[in-house]
Design brief:
alpha+beta, Aminopeptidase, Nonspecific Lipid-transfer Protein, Chain A, 8-stranded mixed sheet, 13 helices, globular
């Protein structure tokens, strides 16, 4: 069995290795260009990368990158799993399982609230990950938008460049005022916004910033669409399709107001679960997300006692809502429902999930809760 360790044996060997392994799937990869936030300009993920080594030769890697989320008034700590690779001559020898176990066991020991990754559902299911990321995708076409003839007079759209320092400063401030966001260091902001081969755009009315979006050309998708002026949304959508053609706009399911503004311009709306999550601390995560949801819409008074057989421990929680005030506490009461780890992730965070018919309708009405990550923040 190979030695599992953290830290680069050699940065250049590491980049060559993951470029080679991912290129075996038929795609051309250059990770310093794909993920400049992690690998460009002398950046290092050495302290966050697990390696399987045979002698001094890399045969496998797993990145577990720290992410900090603000959800309402709560800070949640997460780690994103990425750059999961095994040399093709060594696949099936258990290296990935060993590295993933090291990474996930460390998260449990360190009190991490959850982990997130983009990948095949069944590949990571047996580690405890499940598709949770509830997003609504509003499909726009120039023809559909033109029927509403939105007024774009005085509005402009422009790609954001690294030289737009004042604009990036302003965007950084607005991004960290949202009720749900992943922390983005200012010095890394541009590299975060262009990761995954994205192009960020800013919208203006005259000289005034009225919003921004992040476009993924291969998906024809705006993964992050934010407005600072509600009245600007029709013009922003019209300029987007005029500039970029057919596209879909991703909206977190809990952002009902934003969805209602975009919906009249959409040809179709699709409910998609994108990313995989493994929740280590349900108490913290449920409390943060329930309070976020309560701040956006009134929740029915009710209660639920649930036992969750988690990754490293069983949590038995008493969840109550009274006059839109949320409480999530440990309890020794007999649970009304008992769930495995992946059952609980589906139950609480998937837009459509089995099991909710087994609980009282008041508690069922609170769900799903909005556990998601914007694409540019994923690793």
């Amino acid at each position: 069995m190979a030695l599992i360790q953290k830290g680069y044996p050699s940065f250049h060997d590491y980049i060559d290795f993951i470029n080679y392994c991912f290129g075996m799937n038929g795609a051309s990869h250059a990770f310093d260009k794909l993920l400049p936030k992690l690998y460009a300009d002398g950046k290092t993920t050495s302290d966050d990368t697990y390696f399987a080594l045979e002698g001094d030769r890399i045969v496998g890697t797993v990145l577990a990158y720290p992410l900090t989320f603000t959800v309402g008034n709560t800070t949640l700590q997460a780690r994103g799993i990425g750059s999961v690779a095994t040399h093709p001559r060594h696949r099936g020898e258990g290296f990935m399982k060993a590295m993933m176990k090291e990474a996930l066991d460390a998260m449990a020991r360190d009190g991490i609230d959850f982990s997130v990754l983009g990948g095949r559902r069944r590949r990571y299911y047996h580690f405890g990950f499940e598709k949770c990321d509830g997003m609504l995708y509003y499909a726009l076409t120039p023809k559909t938008v033109s029927y509403l003839a939105p007024d774009t007079e005085g509005y402009t759209i422009q790609p954001i460049t690294k030289e737009d320092t004042a604009l990036l400063d302003e965007l950084h401030t607005h991004m960290h005022r949202r009720p749900y966001y992943t922390h983005r260091p200012r010095e890394a902001l541009y590299d975060i916004l262009v990761s995954w081969y994205a192009t960020p755009y800013a919208y203006f009315k005259g000289d005034r910033l009225v919003g921004w979006a992040i476009h993924y050309g291969s998906k024809r998708q705006l993964s992050e669409f934010e407005y600072l002026d509600e009245a600007a949304v029709p013009a922003m959508l019209a300029l987007s399709v005029r500039t970029l053609g057919d596209l879909s706009v991703a909206v977190p399911a809990y952002e009902e107001k934003k969805g209602a503004l975009i919906d009249p311009f959409a040809e179709t709306v699709t409910d998609v679960s994108n990313e995989c999550f493994l929740v280590f601390n349900f108490k913290n995560t449920l409390s943060a997300l329930l309070n976020l949801k309560a701040a956006h819409c009134p929740l029915c008074d009710g209660s639920l006692t649930v036992a969750i057989h988690g990754y490293a421990k069983t949590e038995t929680l008493a969840i109550t809502v009274h006059h839109n005030t949320v409480s999530v506490e440990d309890t020794d009461r007999t649970p009304e429902i008992t769930l495995s780890l992946t059952e609980a992730e589906l139950f609480f965070f998937r837009n459509h999930a089995p099991g909710r018919e087994r609980i009282n309708p008041q508690a069922a009405s609170w769900l799903p809760l909005p556990l998601f990550i914007h694409e540019c923040d994923n690793v």
